[in-house]
Amino acid sequence: MPRDLDGRFLRTGPNALGVEDPRAHHWMLGDGMVHGVRLRGGHAEWYRNRWVRSSQVARKLGETYPGEVPPDDFACNTHVIPYKGRILALQEGGPLPYELDGELNTQRPHDFRSTLKGAFTAHTKYDATADELHAVAYYPTWDHVRHIMIDRTGRVARTTRVPVPDAPMMHDFALTEKYVVIVDVPITFDAEAAEAGALVPYIWNDERPMRVGVLPRAGGSARWFEVDPVYYSHTLNAYDQGDSVIVDFTSMPAPFYAAGRGNGGPSATGSPALDRWTIDLRAGRVRSSRVDDRPQEFPRVNESLIARRHRYGYTASAAAMWTAYETVDGVPPDTKFTNCLVKHDFLRGTRQVHRFPKGAAASEPVFVPRRGARDEDDGYIMSYVNDPDRGATDLVILAAQDFTGRPLARVQLPGRVPLGFHGSWVAA
Ligand SMILES: [Fe+2]
């Protein structure tokens, strides 16, 4: 275990608490549970998992919810990030973030010193140079989406309303030094589905074009570009290059059904892959290219380079993730590329694959810089990887510069961490 690692590796995901009818449950809506490992001085001190205490979770656990319950209250299940000495659990589409302490106990809803009015996002972008936290938020009843900039004081300093019709579901966006890239995916709020009791009343809307909006970071209006429909899943990173904006991201072929068809899970006509958009602002067009067509997701980058040019990126692939997308009318995933972590070198156009045994399941790879690092990839990759032989999960730590080599450390956890969503290294 590297001795310079002093902090917590945290990852969250939906862990439904007290589901009475699994058929009526939606995969996106499980109560958020954060799984964490505390590392210090070359040792793993503890592993713990805690549900985020929304009012509903507190009630189900027989606890008292302290204070006033915020509107759209939910046990945030999508991301967990460090922000100015705090740990925030995040959710898109309405709920406020929840603040956790270092032992993963829920403290209180977080509204950025009373400056956040309404919905936030799960996929923020922290620009380390500017010390700004950016978000693009959506909400079913809004006729716009909001670009929210939180400045170095931890307060919302600017909110830009960008008119967008039909209330789309915007899971992620991208940030460069100059621009906010808004992705208007044709998955829109469906009032009929909501009335009929759909838990996630968002449908793929064939009538609607797919657009990419480029909004100056300082505010103003967005310039829109139409692109071929695709499900924009996650941003790896984005940056400015001359008169162009480069966006690296994972996508799934359209159409994508968040609620699935028949089986309740998500479904698409294929598995996710890694793509690049080159948004040429001078010529007024977007060029789309495929970086890697093998199934992979959960793209990450050295976070100090968010909004700036990166050379390396990291993704995960797990067979269990892709089976979720297999449907009668879908294309089965490429089974030749499963259960691994991938390091992409965008400069050379090459990649390295760290494979795990069949039945393992690697989750999102988080890059952690080594203390005193100068090179972009001088650091560690951390991921929860299921060990099928043990029936439990390991925290696997790789040296990012020796990606295919033996892991530096493998912390055997006492149980299985289910495949979940996103997380972070939270330095002490
Ligand atoms: Fe996500």
From TrEMBL:
Metal-binding listed as a keyword: yes
Obligatory cofactor(s): Fe(2+)
Domain of life: Bacteria
Chain positions recorded as Fe cation binding sites: H123, H171, H234, H422
GO biological process per UniProt: carotene catabolic process
Molecular function per GO: carotenoid dioxygenase activity; metal ion binding
Any Pfam family the entry gives: RPE65
Cofactor info, note text: Binds 1 Fe(2+) ion per subunit.
Keyword Iron-sulfur: no
Enzyme Commission identifier(s): 1.13.11.-
Sequence similarity: Belongs to the carotenoid oxygenase family.
Name this polypeptide is given: Dioxygenase
Organism: Streptomyces alboflavus
Classification of source organism: Bacteria, Bacillati, Actinomycetota, Actinomycetes, Kitasatosporales
